[in-house]
Structure formats: C-alpha cells, structure tokens
Design goal:
This protein has helices at 98-104, 108-111, 117-133, 143-156, 172-180, 189-196, 206-223, 225-228, 232-257; strands spanning 2-3, 8-9, 16-17, 23-25, 32-34, 57-63, 73-79, 85-91, 115-116, 137-139, 168-170. It is of the alpha/beta class. The chain has a 6-stranded mixed β-sheet, sandwiched between helices. It has a 3-stranded antiparallel β-sheet with strand order 1-4-5, with no helix packed on it. Helix 6 packs across helix 7 (206-223).
Length: 272
C-alpha cells in the first residue's frame, strides 16, 4: 500500500495522520487513508493442510526492460524446493538502459564478463524443466512478466523450451487480486510483503525478490484456508480465472484513461 502525501484524517476512525504515516487503500481513483491502527490486515495463520505446506521453488529475473520482444534478462535468482540456489548475471548482448539500471542497480560493467545469454538462459530452462518433472510448484510474482521473458529469450537464443503445459505456477500477485479484488490499491511485491509481514531487504535483487515472493505465497496459503487447501493444479485454474477478471477490471479503467489494454488469456505467460 502507498502512503499519504499530505496530512489527512483516517477514513475509519477520523484520527489525523501525518504525511507518510497513513496507508492509502482502495481501487483506482478511490483510495482512502487509514491510520496504522485501522489499516487492513490479513487473517491469522490457520492449521489447514494444502499446497502451502509443501516445498516450493521460486524464480525471479532482472532485465533490461519490460518488452520481451526487445529486452533481455541480466540476472536470475532460482530458489530450489530442496534448499539449493542458482544465481548469476547474464551478459545480455545489448546495453542496459539507464532507467533499468536505476531500478535494479545492474550496470553494463557488472555484466561485461558474465556468462553469454545463450548459456545463462539454458541453465534457467534446464532448472525450470527439473521443477516441472518433479511436479513442484514454482512461485513467480507477476508470472506473465518473467515467464514470457524466459520464453522469448529461449526462442531468441535457440534454447529448447520447457514443457510449459505441465508447469504449476503459484503467482502471489494474481492470488492477492483473487483475495482482495483490488480493494487494497497498489500491490507491488513490496506492498504485498508489507501486508503479510514478509521481509524484503533488497527489492529488485532477483534472489531477494524470489525469496520474498515464496514467503508471501506461504503466508497466503496459511492465512486463507479457501486458498491454501486443494491442489496446485486446482490453484492454477483459479489463478487463470482471477487473472481474466483482473484484466477485465483493468481494461475497463484503461479504456476510460487511454491506457494500454491487457490480454485476459495471458496467464501464466503472454504472447511474444
């Protein structure tokens, strides 16, 4: 949740709140301030069984930009379900724009002697395939961004594609929308971590973001019995439905505000 930029009153209790101390809660165009005592909180953890009690893998990339047709992966963080980690830089073969470097802190000099893109992408693809073959859930926050990028990179460098149809994705971004239906406003990874009390000490570092996303997924499963119970395959179907609903909501807003519409069928990855 974002903070207030002016001194304001809590929408629930009426207490005056100083700049930066209130949480701005609500959907597009209708955000209301809530003081620390009144801000929304998730349910307590429960004891139900489900996918959240099984080991999960997690993946995150940092890239040169957000267009999979043109942009490239520059670093990856792959967290295994059995405790291992694969992390590394990739030389993308193109300059890293200053705007991207400002976000993740990775410069051209840092990737100059890194592994070639084809080698790095092959490592990632092989790792993803091992996750698929073992039937392990893969946590990816806002999966269409990272997975579409990976598919485009594999095609670009002639690397075989993973068996995407068997991949079991857990996307906390989409699950959060399924739970809250947009009522809490802006929900970047840092916002969702704050809501669930998950530490994220170095946002926009691939390994840190992958770990935080997985921790959030566990919290979601433990705190929402209707989400945590069931199978990963069942959860995947629910995420497709939530994603389509979220996109329909966004597209209605985008039409009125001259924004770019999204594809309601683009989960867990979009078209390249």
């Amino acid at each position: 949740m974002i903070s207030n930029e002016v001194r304001t009153q809590c929408a629930k209790c009426g207490t005056w709140v100083e700049i930066g101390d209130a949480s701005m809660v609500g959907p597009h165009g209708d955000r209301q301030p809530y003081c620390p005592d009144c801000r929304p909180t998730p349910p307590d953890r429960a004891e139900h069984d489900g996918w959240h009690r099984r080991p999960l893998a997690s993946l995150d990339f940092e890239t040169t930009g957000v267009d999979p047709r043109e942009d490239r992966v520059v670093s990856y963080g792959l967290l295994g379900d059995q405790g291992g980690e694969l992390v590394g830089f990739i030389n993308p073969g193109i300059p890293i724009p200053a705007l991207a470097s400002d976000v993740h802190g990775i410069s051209d000099a840092m990737v100059h002697d890194a592994q070639p893109a084809a080698d790095g992408i092959a490592i990632v693809v092989d790792w993803v395939q091992s996750v698929i073959d073992r039937g392990v859930g893969l946590v990816v926050f806002n999966a269409p961004y990272d997975l579409t990028m990976l598919r485009a990179e594999a095609e670009r460098w002639g690397v075989h594609q993973p068996d995407w149809d068997r991949l079991l994705v857990v996307d906390p971004f989409v699950i959060d929308w399924g739970i809250e239906r947009g009522r809490l406003g802006q929900r970047k990874l840092t916002n969702v971590c704050d809501y669930y009390g998950v530490a994220i000490d170095n946002a926009h570092d691939a390994t840190c973001d992958a770990r935080a996303a997985r921790d959030v997924a566990y919290e979601m499963g433990m705190r929402h019995a209707d989400i945590g119970t069931g199978t990963l395959a069942g959860l995947a179907q629910r995420q497709r439905e939530w994603y389509a609903l979220r996109v329909a909501d966004w597209n209605a807003y985008a039409t009125d505000s001259d924004r770019q519409p999204e594809d309601p069928h683009g989960w867990p990855m979009g078209r390249v």
